[in-house]
TrEMBL record:
<keyword id="KW-0238">DNA-binding</keyword>
<dbReference type="InterPro" id="IPR036271">
    <property type="entry name" value="Tet_transcr_reg_TetR-rel_C_sf"/>
</dbReference>
<feature type="DNA-binding region" description="H-T-H motif">
    <location>
        <begin position="31"/>
        <end position="50"/>
    </location>
</feature>
<keyword id="KW-0804">Transcription</keyword>
<dbReference type="GO" id="GO:0003700">
    <property type="term" value="F:DNA-binding transcription factor activity"/>
</dbReference>
<dbReference type="Pfam" id="PF00440">
    <property type="entry name" value="TetR_N"/>
</dbReference>
<feature type="domain" description="HTH tetR-type">
    <location>
        <begin position="10"/>
        <end position="68"/>
    </location>
</feature>
<dbReference type="InterPro" id="IPR001647">
    <property type="entry name" value="HTH_TetR"/>
</dbReference>
<dbReference type="GO" id="GO:0000976">
    <property type="term" value="F:transcription cis-regulatory region binding"/>
</dbReference>
<keyword id="KW-0805">Transcription regulation</keyword>
<dbReference type="InterPro" id="IPR009057">
    <property type="entry name" value="Homeodomain-like_sf"/>
</dbReference>
<protein>
    <submittedName>
        <fullName>TetR family transcriptional regulator</fullName>
    </submittedName>
</protein>
<dbReference type="InterPro" id="IPR050109">
    <property type="entry name" value="HTH-type_TetR-like_transc_reg"/>
</dbReference>
Length: 192
């Protein structure tokens, strides 16, 4: 019986987080009651799972970052050449980021758990960029921290580029990954 309750609680939490992401993306000031309604649950159930709005936002952040790490791991970045790994990671990350636009666009202070997850994400990114540098995709003198920041900016810009709402090909994670990686490695200059 306890197992069934646990599964039910997990489904409730997942429903709340998914509803919160959608509702808050439309109205960042939405109430817990609006989120509960969108999740098909009572406000009491939402408050049972999350004591307050801040707890819900922290859970959103942790969930989104865990999914980012899973997306990175699913790309198996250490088992392919750096260019292939960079492309796979980028496509996977873009898919997750498109599902968590509200949460991942928030510049709020993170809990210790979220901060640790973010540090892991950054470490994976820098490790992959260091491999790209060792394999000759990036110049030996490239500042990897700067390149990481540029890469993150390109990810955000790819998701927010004009036409992504109407044109399904503009939302395709593979097409966007190609755009991001091509821009990261070649900029606007000619390709050799």
């Amino acid at each position: 019986m306890a197992r069934a309750l646990r599964a039910d609680a997990e489904r409730s939490v997942r429903a709340i987080l998914e509803a919160a992401e959608q509702v808050l993306a439309e109205d960042a000031g939405a109430s817990m009651e609006q989120i509960a309604e969108a999740a098909g649950l009572t406000r009491i159930t939402v408050h049972r799972r999350f004591a307050n709005r801040q707890a819900l936002l922290e859970a959103l952040s942790i969930s989104a970052m865990q999914q980012l790490l899973e997306a990175i791991d699913e790309a198996r970045p250490n088992s392919a050449p750096a260019l292939v790994a960079l492309y796979r990671v980028t496509a996977n990350v873009l898919q997750v980021k498109s599902a968590w636009r509200f949460t991942l666009s928030q510049n709020t202070s993170h809990s210790e758990v979220a901060a640790a997850l973010w540090a892991d994400i950054e470490a994976h990114t820098v490790d992959l960029l260091a491999r790209a540098q060792r394999e000759g995709l990036l110049a030996p003198a490239t500042d990897l921290e700067w390149t990481r920041q540029v890469y993150y900016a390109l990810l955000s810009e790819a998701l927010n580029r004009r036409g992504t709402d109407q044109d399904s090909s503009a939302q395709d994670p593979d097409a966007l990954a190609t755009l991001v990686i091509d821009t990261l490695l070649h900029g606007g200059g000619p390709h050799h």
